[in-house]
Each structure stands twice: as structure tokens, then as C-alpha cells.
Queue: 2 jobs
Job 1
Amino acid sequence: AQSVTQPDIHITVSEGASLELRCNYSYGATPYLFWYVQSPGQGLQLLLKYFSGDTLVQGIKGFEAEFKRSQSSFNLRKPSVHWSDAAEYFCAVGAYNQGGKLIFGQGTELSVKP
Amino acid sequence: DTAVSQTPKYLVTQMGNDKSIKCEQNLGHDTMYWYKQDSKKFLKIMFSYNNKELIINETVPNRFSPKSPDKAHLNLHINSLELGDSAVYFCASSQGPGHYGYTFGSGTRLTVV
């Protein structure tokens, strides 16, 4: 069965430091992969997506993610974190041929220290 | 102009009541979804409609009934509310069933007391 694992429930980084959020997926074919961000009391906003092609994808707000098939990973990175990046981050995989269904990971809460 | 709007934003109700949550999108998308986010922030799909036709119906109690009067609206009616229904319910839309780039609404926080 398809699944997504985000090993880190909570991460704290200092403002200006680099960030990497981990995501591992279980999927039989080439996956469609996504990162969403949820600010407190808000809906989810799409940061970036990977369908095929270049394994390094750029997203909004200075985020990027790298697809590594050999590691079944799709980690999210940002070179310099801003205080406004504090939020919940969700990795998701598109379930093939299931009407657009997304399967989400458990989420990683990011806190940013001044 | 909000792309995907849900009403109400907060809903507090007693066990056994019936309530509805409404969702509207003005993006011209064909597909709409309901997701449930539990207290641990885990998101799980409940239903999906494509152009008013139900295409995803996950294992959800039949007390939950979605209705899509047109492709811009997807409502969720819940009968006989239980404590375990307390959660945040998100509506989302996409261009079509094969398009995963959802636009989410801001959510409805349902509290059953």
C-alpha cells in the first residue's frame, strides 16, 4: 500500500540556518510527490511538486526538494530559514489512478528560533 | 476573492446533532474533495467529486453525506454527531482527477461536546 513517512515530528532551527525536512514514500511506480505548508489556522498551500524529469524541483518561498528514487525520498530544503517559515509541513504522494487522491505524511512542525 | 471558501470556520455542537459544512470554489475546477485532519494533524481523504459525480468514497461512516449541487460547490452533511467527529475538515479543489495540485480552503474546525 502507498504510504508517506515524515520521520521528524518537530524540528527547531535558528533563523538564517539551513533546513532539511525528510520524507520517505512507499510506492510501486514513479510517484507524484508534493510538499504542502500549513500555517496556524490556515489551509494547506502547495510549495512544490515532482511528476517527472529533473529530480531537483524548485518551489515557492525559496524551497526546493530532491527526488531520490534509490532512497525513496523527497526531502525539502531551504538554504536560509526565515521566522515566517514556522509552520507545519506535509509531504504527500499522489495515489495512482485513484481520482486525484493524495496520501499525506504525518507532518513536521517547524519552529524557528530568533 | 477567496478561491476555495468554507463556511462556517468554527462549529461547536452537541452530540447527536446534525450539521452541514459548505464549500465553494471560484477557480473553475472540475474536482472537489473533503479531507479530515485529526487532532494529531493527520490528513485523510473522505470524498471526492468530479463535475458533480462521486469518484472517491473512502471508508467513512454513512452518517457523513456529501452533496455537490454543481461543480463549484461541495457540501458535507453529518448526522448524529459523535465526539470522535471533532476535527478540522478541509475542502479542496483541483483541475481534474489527475491533477494533484490542490487548492485548499482554510478549514472548518468542528468540536462536538
Job 2
Amino acid sequence: EVQLVESGGGLVKPGGSLRLSCAASGFTFSSYDMKWVRQAPGKGLEWVSCISSSSSYIYYADSVKGRFTISRDNAKNSLYLQMNSLRAEDTAVYYCVRREGMDVWGQGTTVTVSS
Amino acid sequence: DIQMTQSPSAMSASVGDRVTITCRASQGISNFLAWFQQKPGKVPKRLIYAASSLQSGVPSRFSGSGSGTEFTLTISSLQPEDFATYYCLQHNSYPHTFGQGTKLEIK
């Protein structure tokens, strides 16, 4: 079964850091571009970042550029999102998503930025 | 950046109705468009990819059409389980952008 499982969310103070992880299984992880998408409470979906299969290209939304870093370890079938200088507006459910057309989603991990 | 304008933002309809939701792109995106359904507290589910291809396992009452800048999602005969929020996504260029969503409610 194709599966993505996120972890690492939690409550953090403004200015703090978190590292999200996504464990992939059931498919050849190293063959797919991967993304992070987030959804603030009661709001719509927002694309956050993308990394190509070999990490040769990486893109970020303007809202997180310079603060978030996406990475992957194909040997461990894992995707990561290092989030620094967190703000209240980063509060959201963060989803790990497979490929350009976003065909497979994880269950999400909740990040809350609050003092 | 490409803006995706989705309409309507909300609508009410009855079981059995035919429903159409539209997404307009601020510039041409070929057919790099997908549609998603999200129910409250649940993970988004892809319904349509490449503008008009039905995702495996999705009922055939869902269909997508369009190319370039104008796209539609049609539900031919609404079922009770279809009441949800729908989003379009363009993945022609970065940043990828979603429409603002259409909340479909029971009349």
C-alpha cells in the first residue's frame, strides 16, 4: 500500500524551530518529486515547497523562503521540512504529498505557533 | 505567479442535481490542472488530474474539462457523500497554486 506518514508537529513559540518528517512506503520513493502543502485552520490549501527526486531542484513559496528548508534522504525513504523563525501564521496542518499532480497525501501533522 | 480564480466560493444544491465548478487561470497552464475533494477533518483526495482524467476509484459522475485558462469540474448527479469543499490546483509552474475552494452544501 502506498503510504506517507508525517511526524514532528507540535506547539512551538514564535521564533522557534521544528523539523517535520515524512516516511514513505509502498512505492519507489527515489523516483518521485515530493512536496509539502499546508492548511491553516479554517482556510484553504497552500503549496509550501517542492524537491525533485534527486534533490537537484528545490522551490519554496515566498511566504516561507529563507525560513524553511526542504530535504530528502532516498536511502531512508524520507522527506523533511526544517522550519525556523516560526510565526503565528505558520500555524497549520502540514501534509507530505507525492509528485507534481499531488496524487498521494499523508494524514498531516499539526504545527501550532503560539506563545 | 499564476492566480487561480475558483467560482463559486460556495453553493447549495440538492441530491441528484448537476453541479459545475469553474477555475480560471491568470495565464495559460495547458492541462496541468487537478481537482481535489476535501471533507471536514479529512485529507484532500484527488478526483481529476491532467484536467480531464478521472483518478482511479473515483465515481464516473465526476468529470473535468478545459485547457489553457478555463477549467470545469462537473458532478453529473450529486450524491449525499459529495457534499464537501473542492479545490483546483495548477502545477504548470512554480509556485503551484490552489483555487480558494468551493464549499458545496446541501440545499
